[in-house]
Amino acid sequence: MINVIGLGYIGLPTALMLASHGVEVIGTDYNEELVATLNAGKTTFKENGLDELFADALKSGIRFSTEYQVTDTYIISVPTPYDKFSKKVDACYIISAVKSVMQICPKGATVVIESTVSPGTIDKFIRPVIEENGFVIGEDINLVHAPERIIPGNMVHELLHNDRTIGADDKTVGEKIKALYASFCEGEIVVTDIRTAEMTKVVENTFRAVNIAFANELAKICRHDNMDVYEIIRICNMHPRVNILQPGPGVGGHCISVDPWFLVGDYPSLAKVIDESMKTNDGMPDFVLNRIYEIMQENGIKDTARVGLYGLTYKENVDDIRESPTLQLLESQARHLAAPLKVYDPFITEDAVENQYHDLDEFLSDTDLVVIMVKHNEIKENMDKLSEKIVLDCHNICDLPGVYHI
């Protein structure tokens, strides 16, 4: 039996995938409301294919509890935030989960850390917790790191098809956990040591963050001298060895906007490019806000209450608002003490911010300037409704005349 600890955006799909492929699974989470929802047969967030996967897992006997289970394998998939001052990983949730596991696990159990951590986190924080509870690692307890490699919006597909990395002290233990994930994973699974597994996951997200930052910085340079950044990128990308990404209003989610900071926190004198890249990305919501003020002035819009932000999630076609650029922009705008901007997102059905709308037409009728913060399919399919609006398109998806860009 596998006890999956943490039933959020990563833990739940992992638990469901294992269960639907014949593995006995009990999912554990401290959130009683979340567990009750799952036990009532309902998923807790929207994701392509998740409801179907949930139904398969229920048929296979998956169970959910707030209690940790006595078993031989634990997969810990809890959040790993970072300290915004030191930029170092905050391992408190993993530490807490491991402490709880140590209270009930038998000797010989394997603890798999699936949460993304900075290189050396397991050595610094997790091994001591296990040893303090009287276990000898490698004899009484096996320790493994198996970082996830999936993205909201395509989780189910990527769980099945993406390659994976397994980090273990002992190759035999690593191969055992590899076989567990191979029960559903069709991608290549590489077994290495724990610190390498920690580093590779953080480096993957850092690579993406740096490349996004280059596009965003290029957008700022082009805006300064009134050049078309999208045309420049299009022409540059005709070169066979150039692949510049598209700029945007910021970076959100719990991976690209967080993980690179782990390297900055741990290697402050070395991670200079990463540090500046993250500052560039984090500065984009303010850059967009300044563009809003410029466009308002140019068009005689005096009241920020007539400005609407389309999109609240951190990316298109998901209901995840973690580290959302829109939230960052709203926080910045609130410091200016201006009237709150209007907000609408088809995927956020409950009020998450002030002045939030839940109907597209009503939202548009109350706005003069619409800022496309997220490129949901809905707005792409309703561009005609923007024809009478002033539009700031942060993703270059609107081909209406007179559209503004970042």
Structural class: alpha/beta
N-to-C span: 51 Å
Shape: globular
CATH architecture of the largest domain: 3-Layer(aba) Sandwich
Provide a quick synopsis of the model:
By secondary structure, this protein is of the alpha/beta class. The protein has helices at 11-20, 32-39, 50-59, 92-104, 121-132, 155-161, 171-181, 194-224, 229-236, 259-266, 272-282, 284-298, 325-335, 360-365, 377-380; strands spanning 2-5, 25-28, 63-65, 73-76, 109-113, 141-145, 164-168, 189-192, 307-310, 342-344, 356-357, 369-372, 390-393, 404-405.
Task: Report on the architecture of this protein.
- This protein is an alpha/beta fold and 406 residues long.
- It folds into 3 domains: 2-192, 3-Layer(aba) Sandwich (Rossmann fold), CATH 3.40.50.720; 195-277, Orthogonal Bundle (N-(1-d-carboxylethyl)-l-norvaline Dehydrogenase, domain 2); 283-406, NAD(P)-binding Rossmann-like Domain (Rossmann fold, 3-Layer(aba) Sandwich).
- The protein has 15 helices and 14 strands.
- An 8-stranded mixed beta sheet has the order 3-2-1-4-5-6-7-8, with helices on both faces. Strands 11-10-9-12-13-14 form a 6-stranded parallel beta sheet.
- α15 (377-380) links the parallel β12 and β13.
- The longest helix has 31 residues, at 194-224.
- The mean pLDDT is 95.
